[in-house]
Specification:
With about 550 residues, the protein is of the alpha+beta class. It has 19 helices and twelve strands.
Amino acid sequence: MAQSFAALWLSRAALVAAVVFAYCAWKILVIDRRGTANHIAFVFNIVFMLWAAAASFWYSAPDASQALRLYRAFSWTWCLFPALILHFTMRVADCKVLGGPWRLPFIVALYLPSALLSLALPDGLLAQPVYRGGYWMLAVHHNIIYYLFVIHYFVYVLVSVLLAFFVRSKTKNKRVRKRLALLGGSYLAGGLLGFITDTLFLFLGVDFPNMAIIWIVILSIGMLVAMYRYGFLSIMPVREALAALESMAGFVIYLDDTGKIIWANASALKALGTSSIEQARKMDYSSFLSPEITERARTNPDILGDQRGIRASLGPENIPVSLRVHPVAGDGTGGFVLTAIDLRPEYARAHTERRLADAGLMLDEFISRSLDGIVIIDPEGCVVRWNDPMISITGIRAEEAVGTPYWDLQASVELDSSKDVGQMRRTLQEVVDGHQTDMTHRIVEREICRRDGARRIIQRDAFTIPMADKTGIAMIVRDMTDDRRRAEENIGRIRKLDHAQKMEAVGTLSGGIAHDFNNTLAGIIGAVSLIKQEIESGSCREIKDMDKELDIIERSANRAAS
């Protein structure tokens, strides 16, 4: 029988559902391999995966007999999942019956109807499948087994939905409320749609595919959203944060917004007097903090957020600690991370040593990554730190510099006219002894000679470092050679530009003067030419006849003189 379009897409949808169930099962187990609720959720997702994988085959089976064999082989999954869903919901809701002496009889009673229906369904309920709409549809006998199956499915799923919403209404924990709202909503949507298409439509004879397994994907998607956003089924919402907190030597306790413990690291569990996280989750902050701290936290919650920490006692042994509380915000759920440092003498000493070691590592990293040269000198005047920029500035290797008196190193790079080792040593000793000298509290600029003969201009700032009984010295040295060269080049360019501008101004001024002088000379030459013409023509017989021309010559000469 050729595969129809409807059978093809129904099979593909079932395969996609199987992949979603497999991923959800894997994710649940990875988050917490020890949680009972995780084990139950893993099992029912595997059951759904098998159901979906079988559905991808029975939709497009070549004949009715093969479709019927597939239905009978996997009909147990339809009976088992309602009990698994209810069991899982009761575990998430922390129902007391699952932890008391009646736990085993209750679980047997919970799964017994599923087991009996699994045995009865293959031969007592399933009829020959009907090929309708291009795919094989489930057909059933409407007998007592059918009605028992419907009641079993409907009651178990309905109780799961009601239990999820009931616990949600009672809890004050915002994170738990959001988890249960997602869980109950996905139960309701998937269960209702599956009941309509696979039970109600089947009973009424409506021509519609059996799609319960595809609707149940809604449940797994809701569970995935709850896991990713609200830490559902996980020890903590972020696994990486858990690994980091677990490695801390101090006490770390994660509280929800009601003050109940969600998680604590190994040191904290020991301080609380518990042997497992399950025991710790039954406690709130009033169970392990002293009454006065508890009362202060109730009346003034901000007191615990003091960055300096507050003195408190922790656990049944009243361990003295420095306590801090860090609010955790996200998705409106809230919560707190409580950190405490053990102040018992034996632990305080170890904590101080760790902090000193960390400070030393930070100092080494800072010095090695600095762009300026850094030198640290001990109270005896010997170099204990000499970083890479100092090697570049002076040409002296760190292996040679460390352990060598600073005055010897300075003398080796000073210009010949400046070498005075004795004076350098006395100045350094005065600084170590606490006397004020010109060496500290001011920036000194000088020229030095590198080991390779190159001259460098440096700026040096020295300051003292108080120690337990003496004083050390630190210096920050900056190579100003390139900056000075660029500054001189800029000054040279400015001077050249200024000179060019001055010459241009002189040229402009000279041009104007020459033009004016030419005009004056033109007047004198013109007047002389007129006198000459008048004399040659005989029209000028007396001096008074040349008064006009002589007046022009006089005025032009006066203007030229001015």
